[in-house]
Design a protein that fits this description.
Radius of gyration of chain A: 18 Å
Order of helices and strands of chain A: HHEEEEEEEEEHHHEHHEEHH
Helix content of chain A: 40-55%
Strand order of the largest sheet of chain A: 2-8-5-6
Shape of chain A: globular
Largest sheet of chain A: 4 strands, antiparallel
Strand content of chain A: 15-25%
Oligomer: homodimer
Distance between the termini of chain A: 27 Å
Structural class of chain A: alpha+beta
Chain lengths: 242, 242
DNA sequence: CGCGAGGTTGATTTGTGTCAATGCACGTGG
DNA sequence: CCACGTGCATTGACACAAATCAACCTCGCG
C-alpha cells in the first residue's frame, strides 16, 4: 500500500494524518491471477482501482485481432483519474503478474481530496499519468523500435525507482516480449531483435527477469527520454518552499 | 466561448447561474496567428488555456527532427486538466489556424468546481479528453494508415458536431496533409495516398477545406471508431435521473 | 520424460518512408 | 496584367524498417 503513498509524496508533502487518510482509502481488497482481467470491456467501473502489488495493464483488443496496451500500471497506480464518474469501459484492465488491488470509492477519495495537500498530491499523480500517456503517443508515432524499447526501459526504471522497486541500475521486468510488443506497437520478433541490439551494444543485460542498465545516459539519449522533465527532486524542493 | 459551455453540458446539466460562472472564467483573452506557438517547450504554464476559436494542437519536436502532434484542440477545449499545478512544459502548444484563447486561473476554475454540477462537468470533460488520448495510442500502435485516417475523420466529425461546428455529414478540416501526418505518425506522402483511397472508395470527398463524409457507418467500421462509446446521449439521460 | 510458454532465428513480404519532381492556386510586386 | 514565389497537393521510383511465417531451441514444471 505504501507504494501509493510513496509516489504521492513526490507531488506534495503529506502530514501524518493525511498519510493515514491515504492509507485507509481502499475499502475492499482483491487478488487477481496473472493474466486475469480486473475489468473487461463493457464493465461498469464504479470504484477506482488501486494497484497494490504486481504489474497490470490497460489494453484494447482490436477488430483485426491485435492488441494494444495503452498503459502499464505498477504498484501505487490508480486505474483512473481520481474524480471520475462511474462509466463504462471501452477497454480492459488485466493483470500481467498476479496482482493485488484495492478498491476505492469515489466518495472516499473526494473526501480525502478536501485536504489541500492531499488534493495537490492526487492532481500531481494525475498529471504524471497523463504525461506518461503523452510520451507514449510520441513514441508510437515517431520513434523506431529500438528507441521505443529504450524509452520504455528508462521509463519503467524511473517509475519503479519512485516506488522503491528498483535496485540502482536494475529492475525486474515482469513482461514477456509479446507483451512488450503490444505495448510498443511492435511484433514479438521485432522486440526480440531490438532487445538483442541493446544487449549487444552493452546498454543493458538480462538474466531471468532482471534487466540491468549499464549505460543509462546513453539509453536516455538514444530514446529521447528526459528524466529531468519529471523533476522528481525539484517538485519536493518547491513544495518545501510553500 | 459558448463552445466550452456547450461541450460541458454533455457532462452535466448546468443551471443558469452555473453557466454564467463558466462563461466568466477567462480573465484574459489573446489572439494567436496561425502557426504561432501559444506555449513553447520549457515555458511555465501558470494559467489554463481555453481555446475559444480556431484549431490548435499540442506537439513535441523530437531529437531526429520529426514532430508528433499529441492532440488537437478544438474550440471549447482546455489545454490541461482543470485542477493542475503550474508546471513546466515538455512540449508545445501551437495554433493551426488563427486562434483566440482565454486564460483561466487555477483558482477561478477550482472555485467554480465547488459547485457539484460544474465539477461533474469538468471531470467529464477531463475524462473525455483522456479517452481521446487513449484512442490515439491504440491507433498509432495498431492501425494502418488508412484506418488511422478514417478514425481521425470520424473523431473530428463527432467533436465538431458536439460544439455545433459540423454540418450533418461535413465539416471544415483545417489541417494540411503534413499536419495530419504529424498527428497520425505518417509521412505526408502516405497521408496523401490514403486520403485518395478514401476518396476513390466514395467514403469521403473534399472540396477546399470542406470534408464530406458519404458513408459514416463504413468509415467507423473501417477504423474501429465506436461513436456509441462516448454515448453523448446516454450521459444526459443519466444526469437527468439524478 | 514430455509438454508448453517464451525466446530466438532465417527467409520473405509488405507497408511506409524518403527523395525528388511536378502541378496548382493564390498573392504580391514590378 | 503578368512574372514570380510560396505553400500545399500529387506522383513515381526506390529503399528500408518491421511484419509475417515457420521452424527450432530452451528451460521449468507436472
Amino acid at each position: 500500500m505504501n507504494r501509493f503513498l510513496r509516489k504521492l509524496q513526490y507531488g506534495s508533502e503529506l502530514m501524518a494524518e493525511e498519510q493515514k487518510l491515504i492509507l485507509e482509502l481502499p475499502h475492499h481488497y482483491r487478488n487477481i491471477d496473472a493474466r486475469g482481467d480486473v475489468l473487461s470491456e463493457g464493465d461498469e467501473q464504479k470504484n477506482l482501482i488501486l494497484v497494490l502489488d504486481g504489474w497490470a495493464c490497460r489494453y484494447k483488443l482490436l477488430e483485426n485481432g491485435t492488441r494494444q496496451i495503452i498503459s502499464i500500471l505498477l504498484p501505487g497506480d490508480l486505474s483512473e483519474p481520481f474524480g471520475l464518474h462511474p462509466h463504462c469501459m471501452d477497454h480492459s484492465l488485466c493483470a500481467i503478474t498476479p496482482v493485488m488491488i484495492g478498491e476505492i470509492s469515489r466518495a472516499a477519495i473526494m473526501d480525502a481530496a478536501s485536504f489541500s495537500r492531499v488534493s495537490d498530491a492526487l492532481w500531481w499523480d494525475l498529471f504524471f499519468t497523463i504525461s506518461l500517456d503523452r510520451h507514449h503517443i510520441v513514441g508510437l508515432g515517431r520513434r523506431s523500435a529500438k528507441e521505443r524499447l529504450a524509452h520504455l526501459i528508462c521509463q519503467l526504471h524511473m517509475r519503479l525507482e519512485m516506488i522503491g522497486m528498483s535496485e540502482d541500475d536494475s529492475f525486474l521486468l515482469m513482461m514477456t516480449q509479446a507483451q512488450i510488443g503490444d505495448m510498443l506497437g511492435l511484433s514479438t520478433v521485432q522486440v526480440n531483435r531490438s532487445l538483442q541490439v541493446l544487449r549487444e551494444t552493452q546498454l543493458i543485460s538480462q538474466h531471468q527477469n532482471r534487466l540491468t542498465i549499464h549505460d543509462l545516459t546513453e539509453l536516455c539519449a538514444l530514446s529521447g527520454f528526459d528524466r529531468s522533465y519529471f523533476h522528481l527532486d525539484d517538485i519536493k524542493d518547491q513544495t518545501a518552499n510553500d
